[in-house]
Amino acid sequence: TDDAADEPDGSVTATLNAGDGYTVGAPSSLTADILDDDDPPPAQAQASAFAADAQLVSDIRRWRGETDQGQAHVDRWTRVLIALGAEAGSLAPMSSSEAQGYADNGWTRWERVVAELKRKEAHDAGQPSAAPAVEPAPQVPPTPEVSITGGAAVTEGGDAVFTLTAAPAPASDIEVSVTVSETGSFAAAGATGARAVTIGAGGTAEFAVATDDDAADEADGSIDAVVAAGEGYAVGGSASASVVVTDDDEAAPPPVLDDDEAAAAPLTVSVDDASAEEGSEASFKVRLSAPAPGRLYVFARTREATPVSAKEGVDYKRRLTVAIFDKGDTEDTVEVSTLQDVQNDSGETFEVVLFQPRPGRGESFEVALGDAVGVGTITNDDPLPGAYLARFGRALAEEALDGVAGRIDAEREPGMRGSLAGYALGFGAAPGRAADAASPAAVSGALDGAAFGFGARPAVSGGFGAGIGAPAGRSGAMGLRDVLAGSSFALTGAAGASGGSVALWGRSSRSRFEGREGAVSLGGEVSTGLLGADYARGGWLAGLALARSAGGGAYRDPSIAPLPGGAEAGAGDMEATLTAAVPYAAARLSERLSVWGAAGLGEGEVRLGTGAGESLSAGVVWRMAAAGLRGELLPGGGAAGLSLVSDALWTATDSESARGLSASEGFASRARAGLEGRYRLGLGGALGGGASLTPSLEVAARHDGGAESGFGVDAGGGLALSAPSLGLSLEVRGRALVAHADGAARRSGFSVSLAWDPRPASVLGWSLSLRREAGGPSGGGVDALFSGGPFAAGLGGPGATFAEGLEAARWTAEAGYGLAAFGGRFVGTPRLGYGRSPFGRDYSVGWRLSPDASVAGAPDLSLGLSATRREGGADGAEHGIGLDIALRW
Questions:
Q1: Contact assessment for residue 487 and residue 508, using Cβ atoms and an 8 Å cutoff
Q2: In this structure, are residues 339 and 185 in contact, taking their beta carbons and an 8 Å threshold?
Q3: Are 490 and 517 in contact (CB under 8 A)?
Q4: How far is CA 488 from the centre of its chain?
Q5: Quick one: pLDDT at residue 544?
């Protein structure tokens, strides 16, 4: 409506609501500014001009001088004038110098600037108008722009702290003019007014404003600071800041008024605090101290609470609105929409501020602001970062326990053992036998000898061909992280006079996890490095390991609507780092029973990146406890054997409270038990001396708590045929996840291995092998059934059926021939390898020179050379050459 009353500029907002047959896109709402075109009375115009903020005046002068920035400045200062029209009553008076400037230049210049800017705003709204004419300005060196930010809220009597930032940092000290004012009556005597603050080459400077701890009860207020124009710098976009000052005095009881006194009492308007669940509406009650004598408008806007958030309006929708009171009304409601996210930021606050109460047209009565600030609290209990920390902590605990388990089972022979990129380096181990620095062999079977006889073997059986089992789409090229993730070493000293020995060891590993917490899906990768030392004597062992773990991942909740502007509020990334100490011990209590235990304590940090561009971080504390046992239920050494393996793990990873994040707890637990049985049947009469048939069976059960809770049962078995007189060995193995609380969890593995060595007692002559694998690992006994998380997937991918795993089978074949060299003291072995899977093909050729262990006095020196070609990757064929040397003395 085009009325004749002079009033603040306002706005109209149109919002699309959800309905049937369509979805709401982005943006879902738009706001149109409405400009008042009525002139104020002369006295009011002069008072409003003198009430204009000193910064606005300097900004307008700067716009007129810095014409090289053109349209951006016109738009910027137009918005400033609109804000001035809406909140003129809350702006600080002009300084004496600014007032004198207007006296010197006259009001004509001010009116011309205002007219030009309003004409430009009208032009943008569709009315024909010419933009203000500007003249090019000469180029000048970059001038530092100075911005100001306020610190945390203070209680009266404390110091309000402000920070000035110059960008870029000045080459030498600059003196910045700042005007300090207050809302309420809190500043100490002489603390307000103009002051100069020096910014050095560092680019920042702080200054404090003292407040007075008086005895008067009053509404909370603020200390306000504005950067004024000056020489050697320009005023930045954030030219003003406020620090909330909280009153700590108790209110005096209200006086008892009779009807006449109540009618004569001044009318005040206040706003209550409010709270809301995330994603709902926060309702702020706006109250009058007495019934409204006529129509009353009270403007209200949202703003960030102190301390200021890194991103304004991330947790709520910013709003400028008006509360309307008709005659006789005492309250109205201001609604603010809160926004949904996935991080646990319970207690996030914002404020609704009342300003410029104004009687309606034709009304005449006075209204004052009472408690004009309402605090809105957003409550929620979202899963992040707790869900991520639970999985990160569990991955770290499992990697640490894998290292500890390797030390408990490790041989204590003096010397050094190691592995590089998952290949065990023998350092003098006999050909055909692979050495692992930190863990026992993970794969069983007749074909688990060294690949190409090099004294080095991949982490999964099958020689060079096994390397093609990488997931589809992942390159076979190996980077530094891949090399480190599969590397380890163990340096063991000789036994001392007491019979004990000390070992120094280390290993690095990398694992992945995936999970779901309600509607949130998350996954990540954890890399862990361990460095430890232990002492073993007789049947017991004690040691300490230091762990350093780093993880990264991502999360997404598709059910959360995008933020205004299109940012995905339900998606983001996560990072965590942690350093921990892990003491451990093991003891063999008898010939048939051994036990072990470990603990862990560490600290670190977690960082959560949100879809709105926030980066939130908090400190992390990690705790772990684990224990296990292994018992031989049947005496060892016979044809039959039956073993019991059991362990339990508990880990908790908690984050501290920080800005934007509440304290979170993430825990995980597991309890496992398994049986492993075997029976060896001699077949000497049918297949010659030493022939045997050995069936085996493993069954393991586990219960996981916390992340991915549930109960599951794994089963595995195999049949191994060995006929040394014929040089043949055959093994068939399989395993599967029999049951799990989550019906979608599936895991299986199957393998068939055939090997021929006509002279098994010698490293000379032919050796051939053929292997077919499908799904995940098929061997390894109960240890393999225990490995991995409850949802570990095989080659067929997460949730793949056994039939799908068979379709993704891989084949590997190897052939080699051992030749005597250098007078029979060495063996030279050329070998060929071929591997094939749905992801590509591998070709390999190699040669190895190693000492013949059957010849006394042979130098303990080994040399190896290999070349590989991998086809079928996304980047075309890949080639690799490997050279290794091992010398022991």
A1: yes
A2: no
A3: no
A4: 28
A5: 97
**Hey, which residues does 750 pair with through a beta bridge?**
734, 774
Q: Hey, what are 413's tokens? A: 């022979």
Contacts (Cβ under 8 Å, ≥6 apart) of 524: 388, 391, 392, 512, 513, 551, 552, 553, 554, 574
- Structure tokens of 416? 């050094």
pLDDT-derived band at 476, boundaries 50, 70, 90: very low
- 110, 49 contact by CB (below 8 A): yes
Cα–Cα distance, 277 to 560 (Å, whole number): 14
Q: Which of 153-157, 385-389, 565-569 has the highest mean pLDDT?
A: 153-157
- Predicted local confidence at residue 873, as pLDDT: 66
Q: What pLDDT score was predicted for residue 149? A: 92
Render 498-551 in DSSP notation, one character per residue: TS-EEEEEEEEEEEEEEEEETTEEEEEEEEEEEEEEEEEETTEEEEEEEEEEEE
Q: Is 827 exposed, middle or buried (0-12, 13-18, 19+ CB in 10 A)?
A: buried
Contacts of residue 300, defined as CB under 8 A and 6 or more positions apart, other chains included, come to 271, 284, 286, 319, 320, 321, 322, 323, 334, 352, 353, 354, 355
How much of the chain exceeds pLDDT 90, in percent? 26
Q: 46-55, 397-406, 614-623 — which is least confidently predicted?
A: 46-55
The span from the CA of 59 to the CA of 75, in Å, is 12
What single letter denotes the amino acid at residue 100? Q
Mean pLDDT of the chain: 76
Instruction: Give the C-alpha separation, 105 to 115, whole Å.
Output: 17
Is residue 228 within 8 Å of residue 54, measured between CB atoms? yes
Q: Take residue 382 and report the two structure tokens written for it.
A: 């979202």
Q: Is the dihedral of CA 261, 267, 273, 278 positive or negative?
A: positive
State phi, psi for 466 to the nearest 5 degrees: -65, -20
User: Which phi and psi (to 5°) does residue 43 adopt?
Assistant: -65, -40
Q: Is 805 helix (H, G, I), strand (E, B) or coil?
A: helix
Question: Is 244 in contact with 182 (CB distance < 8 Å)?
Answer: no
Q: Cα dist. 677→154, 551, 642, 645, 808 in Å? A: 70, 38, 4, 11, 30
Angle between helices 71-87 and 54-65 (to 10 degrees): 160
Single-letter amino acid, residue 453: G
Q: Which residue has the higher pLDDT, 108 or 354?
A: 354
DSSP 8-state secondary structure symbol assigned to residue 464: G
Distance CA 692, CA 773 (A): 23
Residues comprising the chain, all counted: 889
pLDDT computed for residue 775 by the predictor? 72
CA distances to 318, 516, 738, 801 from 744, in Å: 43, 13, 12, 10
What is the identity of the amino acid at 626? A
Distance CA 833, CA 812 (A): 7
What values do phi and psi take at 61, rounded to 5?
-65, -40
The Cα–Cα gap between 763 and 432 comes to: 8
Identify the residue with better confidence: 790 or 651: 651
Q: How does residue 163 score in pLDDT terms, banded at 50, 70 and 90?
A: very high
State the Cα angle at 15 between 9 and 19, rounded to 5°: 165
Rounded Cα gap, residues 601 and 580, in angstroms: 5
